[in-house]
Write a structure and sequence with these properties.
Strand 4 (about 400-405) and strand 5 form a beta hairpin. The strands form two sheets. The protein has a six-stranded mixed sheet, sandwiched between helices. It has a four-stranded antiparallel sheet with strand order 2-1-4-5, with helices on one face. With about 600 residues, it is α/β, with parallel strands linked by helices. It contains 21 helices and ten strands. Helix 18 (about 485-500) packs parallel to helix 19. It starts with 8 loop residues before the first helix and ends in a 9-residue tail after the last helix.
Length: about 600
């Protein structure tokens, strides 16, 4: 959805307030009332000045000074009390609104295909949901009531300005109108979308900074400091140029604005002198004192409008970012709750990750027979992982059909699909919990004996028993205290415990050492017994015994058969096999001079 077609951010945010929207409205009304009550002390100060000057030099003859003073105090207390109650209302509503936004965002995120999370890092998603929901709190809790009060103040002050001296009041009103006009001009036109561009530049600079810091070891190794800094430097300069251009574009408008909101006093002095020349100097002095105090108060309210507009722009940006999430189409599941068989069939499947992007898969058709092992091989970017990710519906194919047990994968319920498929990825996700809890994540109701049996079958008990607390040892969120091979065996134990009839192995031994690979292969033999297995691998030695091998290249299937059959075809697989054997026999030799 384009930003121009979206509803105003305040309306979008208030839609999440639900029953608490009334509190926001009440808070804004009370804040406006507090702002109006805040003008009363100035009127009572006028009467104090009038009585003092009327009885000068015998001020004790002004009998009503105390009354006006108490009235001013009561009005000030009333204004503060109303504002306090207003903030209580808006804060309660703001916290509930932020909570509802987080809840709605999480519920929507959980309804998205799992591929969405592979394309969006967890840090970005956290910022998208949590930080942008937090931005709404300041707008609803503070800026909405403050903006209401700032708008009410000049409106209510107009009749007050003409209450005592129409000429002085007109001068003050003129400066207020001029200030508002200069502010409107300053924040319109090319500057209207500044905050959106500003956020983009901040994100770009932050990304460049993170990339530069992470690459420092490589940068220092190859002595490329200056060149590697270039992208970061460009991002800094781009941000600096944007901020400088914005500051320069606001220079005239800001100057006029400050002159207007502070210039009433200087216009009042000659006006007061001209009026006093006509007589009744004490009355003119009284009026001058009132307008000299009252005009800055009106100017301050206009300044608050300008500062509140910044929070409105932040909220608009937050609503725009949240729209990125909510505009993602949720995945819908069918109603079939069980699988009759577990063979997998691709029928003319095509898929692209982005609109108008090259096809990651193009007309792929093949069958994985039940309780057999099929291996997908081919060059990087050939479409192997993409094909595997379509089976559990990490993404949905844009063309063709993928069937499990003869039915379209889209016809199964989410619970049925997830219950029947287990995964072992190249980089398994481990939680900051005990190894026991990590393994049991695939089957929360598993007994301790079942967890130990799964760990044994995964060849993991040897290193688990060597840990300080054994299977109850707490590990980091990324397996901080485990090697790559050990993490893989935990993931395999998790899959064994789940005991799903379909297993997907994606480069599960890609980065393991020979000893760990041997143990993982033994674990695989326990995991794969009697299962329908799809294995993605680069090491051809690990898939020579597969029941079927499919060779991918540029999103297409180019060969299919057993290892011996494909070698006999003298095609792409044979060439890959020869290259693999050559690389396996390669040794470092000292050149004889």
């Amino acid at each position: 959805m384009s930003k121009s077609k979206r509803q105003p951010s305040w309306r979008v945010l208030l839609s999440y307030s639900k029953s608490f929207k009334k509190l926001t409205v009440i808070g804004c009304l009370l804040s406006g009332t507090a702002a109006a009550a805040g003008l009363l002390p100035y009127i009572f100060i006028y009467f104090v000045a009038r009585d003092v000057l009327a009885t000068y030099p015998v001020i004790l003859n002004a009998e009503e000074l105390a009354k006006w003073g108490w009235y001013a105090l009561y009005a000030a207390i009333l204004s503060i009390l109303l504002y306090f109650i207003a903030l209580m209302c808006t804060h309660i509503a703001a916290f509930r609104t932020a909570r509802n936004i987080r809840k709605a965002a999480m519920e929507h995120a959980l309804s998205l295909p799992m591929g969405y999370f592979s394309k969006n890092m967890t840090g970005r998603l956290r910022k998208l949901i949590d930080d942008n929901a937090g931005l709404t709190e300041d707008l609803l809790a503070h800026k909405f009531p403050d903006l209401t009060g700032a708008i009410v103040t000049p409106i209510v002050s107009i009749p007050v300005l003409f209450l005592f001296d129409p000429l002085m009041g007109a001068i003050c009103l003129f400066t207020m109108i001029a200030a508002i006009a200069s502010m409107a001009v300053m924040m319109s036109g090319k500057n209207a979308g500044f905050f959106h561009r500003y956020q983009r530049e901040i994100e770009r600079m932050s990304a460049a900074a993170v990339e530069y810091v992470r690459g420092i070891p490589v940068v220092k190794t190859f002595q490329q400091t200056i060149w590697s800094f270039k992208a970061f430097y460009k991002a800094i300069i781009s941000y600096s140029d944007l901020a400088e251009k914005y500051a320069i574009s606001c220079r005239t408008g800001e100057t006029v604005f400050l002159i207007c909101i502070n210039g009433a006093f200087f216009l009042l002095i000659p006006t007061a002198l001209l009026l006093s020349a006509k007589g009744n100097g004490w009355q003119v002095l009284t009026n001058f004192i009132f307008y000299s105090i009252f005009a800055p108060a009106c100017g301050a309210s206009i300044s608050r409008i300008m500062f509140a507009s910044e929070s409105v722009m932040k909220a608009d940006e937050a609503a725009f970012k949240l729209d990125e999430l909510f505009s993602q189409t949720p995945i819908s599941f069918g109603e079939t709750g069980s699988m009759e068989s577990h063979d997998i069939k691709f029928e003319d499947v095509a898929f692209s990750y982005f609109e108008n992007a090259p096809a990651a898969l193009n007309g792929i058709s093949f069958t994985i027979r039940q309780k057999t092992t099929t291996a997908l091989i081919g060059p990087s970017g050939g479409g192997k992982t993409t094909a595997a990710s379509l089976i559990p519906r990490f993404f949905d194919a844009q063309q063709g059909v993928i069937r499990i047990g003869g039915l379209d994968v889209r016809s199964y319920t989410e619970d049925c699909l997830m219950k029947n498929i287990a995964f072992v990825f190249q980089d398994p996700c481990l939680f900051k919990k005990s190894i026991y809890d990590n393994i049991r994540a695939s089957k929360p109701d598993a007994s301790r004996a079942e967890v130990f049996d799964a760990a044994r079958k995964a060849q993991a008990l040897d290193f688990i028993n060597a840990l300080p607390d054994g299977i109850d040892t707490i590990i980091g969120s990324k397996g901080t205290y485990l090697s790559g091979g050990q993490k893989q065996r935990i993931a395999i134990a998790r899959a064994i415990l789940k005991d799903a009839p379909i297993i997907i192995l994606d480069e599960a031994t890609a980065f393991t050492d020979p000893e760990n690979e041997y143990l993982i292969q033994k674990a695989f033999s326990n995991l794969m017994k009697g299962k329908t297995v799809l294995m993605i691998a680069h090491r051809l030695s690990s898939i020579t015994d597969a029941d079927n091998i499919i060779v991918f290249s540029e999103g297409r299937k180019i060969e299919e058969g057993t290892s011996s059959e494909l070698i006999m075809k003298n095609g792409a697989y044979k060439k890959m096999w020869q290259e693999y054997k050559t690389s396996a026999s390669w040794k470092i030799k000292k050149e004889v001079v």
